[in-house]
Design a protein that fits this description.
The chain has 350 residues and is an alpha/beta fold. It contains 13 helices and 13 strands.
Length: 350
Amino acid sequence: MKKFFRRGLAMLLVLCLVCLTACEETEVESVNEVSEEKTGIKIGMSFDSFIIERWRRDCDVFVSKIQEYDKYADVNVQNANGDIETQKSQIRYLIEKKVDVLVIVCIDSNSLSDTVTEAKMAGIPVIAYDRLIKDSNVDLYISFDNEKVGRLMGEALVGYEMPYKRVIMLSGPKEDNNVSMVEDGFRQVMEENNIHIYDCFNVPGWKAEEAAQYINEHLNNLRRVDAIMCGNDNIATTIIRTLSEARLAGKIKIVGQDADLEACQRVVEGTQVMTVYKPVDKLAQVAAEYAIELAENKTLTDLTDTISDGTYDVPYYCLDPIAVTKDNIDETIIESGFHMKDDVYLNVSD
């Protein structure tokens, strides 16, 4: 009886071991299948900073479009907070992560060529997003017509009475290649209309407080200035507040760009002449589509335009900016869904 019991127990143990082994193999196979199923494209995205309101929107739309195409895609977003050395380090981190493509909003157009070369040597294609990276031979530069942005700002001011024929330019930092193009467009319009550019100050790092400090140091000169061209709407916001404190608000015409919500509110209120709307949703969507193609090793055959980065002619996708005034804000900003009507007209009584 004992012998029979021992034999039965041994057989039971063997059966248990076989069952456990089978379950383990099935579990491993299942895990492997899930792992393979969830592998998606990997995209590295490096932002200058999120100080400027629009960059968050660009980021959200870009990531949404990528994940709409591939729900398992991994978009690794890095924020350099305006520091070029941090941006270089973050890009190298993304290279080490072996992303399939890099999308870069550069801080300094002249300081990333070596870092981009490292990415390309690692077989990673690079998209220069909105800002050109000089001497780097990127796979794609996608942006707006920045010279036209400057012209639109200038033309908006020319439409108003300018008794002193004098304006001040509070541009973005010289390290941003777009800034020089915007300045060129603006200067052309000023020259064509015999308007004197009294001074041009390049705001370091797009820091609006630096622009405010400039204004406070030049208050006496402002009394014979007709207008201020602000490099973006964030700068315009701070400048208008500074002018209000000096009791000069409304006396000096202000233009900006990016169609930030506060700027659109000021346009309908009449405290800002215009803002330049750049359809960033469209820019981000198109960039995402090209990023997917590059990640899948496809050739961008539909691009015909190029732009010189100083050394190379690189593929260029250009979108048109739009001047937004009180007269067209409903169709340009509200109907496009960029901002809600209730938000834009928040401070305007019926």
